[in-house]
Design brief:
Elements lengths: L2 H15 L46 E4 L4 E3 L8 E6 L4 H16 L4 E6 L4 H11 L5 E4 L4 H5 L7 E5 L5 E5 L3 H14 L1
Parallel strand pairs: 3-4, 4-5
Antiparallel strand pairs: 1-2, 1-5, 3-6, 6-7
Helix pairs in contact: 2-5
Amino acid sequence: MNRAGMAAVITAATLTLAACGAAAPSDPMGTTSAAPSDEMKSTDQMQSADPMESGSTPAALRFSAKTLDGKEFEGGSLAGKPVVFWFWAPWCTKCRSDAPAVKAAAAAHPDVAFVGVAGLDTEAAMREFVESTGTGGLVHLSDEKGAVWTKLGVAQQSVFVFMEPGGDTTKVNGPLGRDGLDAEVAKIKAA
């Protein structure tokens, strides 16, 4: 297996083992699953290295995923829009506490794309979480292998990645509550 393949396996395993809200441990190759890709830098105030390096689609949006309802989703469809990515796991109590605020913020800001990125469990558990939290009005991606988590430099949950229309991103650990979400949304809408 090549180094990239090994890193992907280690990242998926680390995400699977990460505790709710706990940072992922380092892998044996000396990097962590939260290590930035060549396209992104990962800090608490994560800014993309060159968000528009390939035309009008920011590097962070160059991904494909499947939604929890089985549809194909292209990250590039969000280019040019303010976006809130909410990274959650079905068993995470912090994620469950974030759900009402996320649902309310999405309703209050229809000009912002809210995308849930579920991981660290089965699709059945993910669908149950969406149903029990009433967040079915949002797009939720099934990211069992952690590809989108890795793409956006996320190694724990509940985490939000706020993306400005130009592609710059800011990563914030949750829970944020409604006021925190509204404050961050105001920043990306003003950009």
